[in-house]
Amino acid sequence: MRYSSRRRLLSALLDLLVWLILIAMLVPALWLVFTSVRNPVEVNAKPPVWIPRELTLEGFKPLFGQSTEATGAIPFDRYFFNSTLVALISTAIAVALGTMAGYAFARYRFQGKNALFLGIMLSRAVPGIALSLPLFLLFARISQAGPLKLIDTQLGLIIVYVAVNVPFTVWLMDGFFREIPTELSEAAQLDGCTEWQTFTLINLPLALPGLAASAIFAFLAAWNEFQIAGVLTRTVNSKTAPVGLFDFTGQFTIDWRGMAAMATVMMIPAIAFVLVVQRNLVRGLTFGAVK
Description:
Blueprint: H1 2-36, H2 40-43, H3 76-107, H4 113-123, H5 128-145, H6 154-179, H7 182-190, H8 195-206, H9 208-224, H10 227-232, H11 241-244, H12 256-276, H13 278-286
C-alpha cells in the first residue's frame, strides 16, 4: 500500500515537473506574441506589463507594405520566400543524402568506414559562428574565380545548410536502419529485388519515422539560422527572414513591436511543418536514435 502511494506521488511530481518545464518554455513565445500586439507605451514599460491592456495590429503593418511611425515598409514577402525556398530545398537534399549515407553505414562494410563516420560527426561539432568567416572567404574566392556566384545568393545558403544538416541525418538514419532486421533485406533479395529495390521498398518505408524526425530538425535548423545567413547575404534578393529582422533596427532606436510581429509570423510555418509530421516525430526521436 505504501509502495503504491509513493509511486502515485512520484508520478504526480514528475507530471508537475513536466508541466513546469513546458510552461517555462512557452513563456518566451507568449511574450513574443503579446509584444507584437501591444501599444508602443506597453512595449518599453517598466515594470513590464505582462498582459496587454489594449490589442493592436499596428506592428504587423510593415510586413504588408505599410509604413508606420517607427519604421518603413519591410520586404517581408521576399524574406519569407527566400527562407522557404532555402529551407525546403536544403532539407530535401540533406535528408536524401543523409538517408542514403546512413543506409550505407548501417548495411555495408568498407575500408575506413569508422574513420569516415567519425569525421562526418565531428564536422557537425563546429559551431556556425566559427564557420561564418571561413565560408565567406571560400565563397568569395569561388565567385571571383568563375561564373558560380555563392555570395549573396540562395544557392550559397542551400549548400551551407545541406553540409550542416547532413551529419545529423546520417547519424539518425544509421541508427534507424540498424534497428531494421537484415533478414528482411535478405528475404527481399531472394525474391528477386535489387539493392535499390530493397532499399526503397523494404527499408525506407520502415525508417519513415526517422526520415520525418530528420526532416523536422533540418528544416528548423535552416529556417531559424541567423549567423551564417547574416554573413553570406547582403541584399533583399537573398536575405532570409531571421536576417530581415534587423530591418527594424535604426541608428538610435529599435522597433521591438515590429520585430516581435515578424518573429510571430515566422513561427507559423515552423509550427505547421512540425504538426504535419508530429505522429512520426515522437517515434522518430526514440526508435532509432539509440544504437
